[in-house]
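Take a careful look at the protein record below. Let me know whether the structure tokens fit the sequence:
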Amino acid sequence: MKTYIECVPCIINQATHLSRDLTDDPKKQESFLREVLKNLSEVSYNHSPPHIAAYVYRLIRQTLNNPDPYKKVKDEYNQKAKKLYPSLKKKVKSSRDRFKTAVKLAIAGNVIDFGSSQNFQLDKTIKQVLNKNLAIDDVTRLKKEIKKVSSILYLGDNAGETFFDRILIEEFPRKEIYYGVRGTPVINDATEEDARIAGLDKITQIISNGSDAPGTILDECSREFKKIFNKADLIVAKGQGNYETLNEVKDKNIFFLFMVKCPVIAHDARCCVGDNVVWKLPLN
């Protein structure tokens, strides 16, 4: 997916919030924003938004001399999600449709995104997602596909959300399952450490994609990750970043699970901001 002009003010807005949240030094804030604006004036919009975002977050790490500026936030939401995990498991066990409930919970966890917004209420979102119909509902197709395939690559998104992913993966039949994470900290996206905290190493093989982009830019991923991506019979891709970077990939069996968080994605998916989707795009 290319970057639309509507994405540019969004990226600038994120950068402005970043500069204020992560440093009190006015000189560092100004330097950072000037570099972001310079890059936006030169970058090709044929790249996906995560391509541009990757540059922005590399720049903030350099400006702050901090390899993981969101470490505190990630730790906080790992602990919050860990506390919620037992009660969420009970919701799945007591529901009429365990699989669909687990899918909805996985999508609810997608709200833990400090790249798009910091104003979210996790408990409220869980209730809303469970009580709301999916705007695009390919859950039945996903369930059938999971039963048929031998290997699955599940692409994670954010720290804390990893516990919600675990709930869904625990509803999968026994398969060869890989869980993909970012290779380097970016925003509050999940790394191997976050996946292990959620216990995903007990039920999947955790694989780093070798990249620091907030999505899955295959050209920037490691050879090992691309090998698993290419051989996987089914790919479950969580979050807008993975949708933005993989929705034009051809000849792969990909299901996208995400919460619609911006008008550009809403337009692309033909739904509304705030909608939740489980979407199997046609194979090209």
About this structure: The chain has two domains: 7-64, 71-280. The beta strands are 136-137, 151-155, 176-181, 205-208, 234-238, 254-259, 276-280. The CA atoms of residues 187 and 241 lie 12 Å apart. The mean pLDDT is 92.
